[in-house]
């Protein structure tokens, strides 16, 4: 009987790229420019969720009216503030090595991010991802983002693998909730600021520190040459 091949579907920010806090500060800058006060820690707790849920959270926690025009301004200001920082954003420890190992082992992998290509593109280049060879699914390519499963389902589809044979690797509870809803196995990383207990409760069956730690234990999650 042939062995079932495992595929890996990666979140980007906080999972492969050390960019979570850059996104937090970019959102804070955008909100302040619109006269909206929201504590930085509250913004951090929502990084990785879909823009729609982020919008609902803003309206609920600030009591602010969110018109379509204002939301579009916020998104654009966040992208501008984030991209002004992106030149200094680096891959997390072991990220390049992990992706190179999977490629060398001929294990399929893809990236699925709640970010749009306007912000994801520059850091994908920093990571060394060849978008002509590696499937990359961004927010602007699906109807709903995390915690809905659409991003990961689309990534598995692009790889041509069953979602049930895939491991979703993410740093936030939103990634792991989406993985659970997609019927994939969830792997949590601590490199985005969430705790081990939070990630486990959201559905992670293994939690590692960062990509380097995951690579060190890759055989535990089905990564074999």
UniProtKB/TrEMBL annotation:
Q: Keyword check for Hydrolase, yes or no.
A: yes
Q: Name one GO molecular function term.
A: sugar-phosphatase activity
| Recorded superkingdom | Bacteria
Offer one Pfam family short name for this entry. Hydrolase
**Keyword line:** Hydrolase
Q: Which NCBIfam families match?
A: HAD-SF-IA-v1
**InterPro entries for the chain:** HAD-like_sf (IPR036412), HAD-like_SPP (IPR051806), HAD-SF_hydro_IA (IPR006439), HAD_sf (IPR023214), PGP-like_dom2 (IPR023198)
| Alphabetized SUPFAM superfamilies for the sequence | HAD-like (SSF56784)
Keyword match Hydrolase = yes
What's the top EC group for this one?
A: hydrolase
Name of the molecule in the record: HAD family hydrolase
Q: What is its EC number?
A: 3.-.-.-
């Amino acid at each position: 009987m042939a062995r079932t091949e495992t595929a890996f579907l990666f979140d980007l920010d906080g999972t492969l790229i050390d960019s979570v806090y850059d996104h937090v500060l970019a959102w804070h800058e955008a909100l302040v420019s619109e006269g909206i006060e929201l504590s930085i820690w509250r913004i951090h707790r929502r990084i990785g969720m879909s823009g729609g849920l982020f919008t609902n959270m803003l309206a609920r926690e600030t009591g602010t009216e969110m018109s379509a025009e204002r939301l579009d301004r916020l998104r654009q200001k966040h992208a501008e503030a984030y991209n002004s920082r992106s030149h200094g954003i680096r891959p997390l420890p072991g990220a390049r090595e992990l992706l190179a190992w999977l490629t060398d082992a001929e294990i399929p992998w893809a990236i699925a991010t709640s970010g749009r290509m306007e912000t994801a593109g520059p850091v994908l280049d920093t990571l060394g991802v060849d978008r002509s060879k590696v499937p990359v699914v961004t927010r602007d390519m699906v109807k709903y983002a995390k915690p809905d499963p659409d991003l990961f389902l689309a990534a598995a589809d692009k790889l041509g693998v069953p979602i049930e044979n895939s491991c979703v690797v993410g740093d936030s509870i939103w990634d792991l909730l989406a993985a659970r809803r997609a019927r994939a196995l969830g792997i949590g990383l601590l490199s985005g600021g969430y705790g081990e207990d939070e990630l486990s409760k959201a559905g992670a069956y293994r939690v590692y520190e960062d990509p380097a730690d995951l690579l060190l234990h890759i055989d535990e999650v089905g990564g074999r040459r």
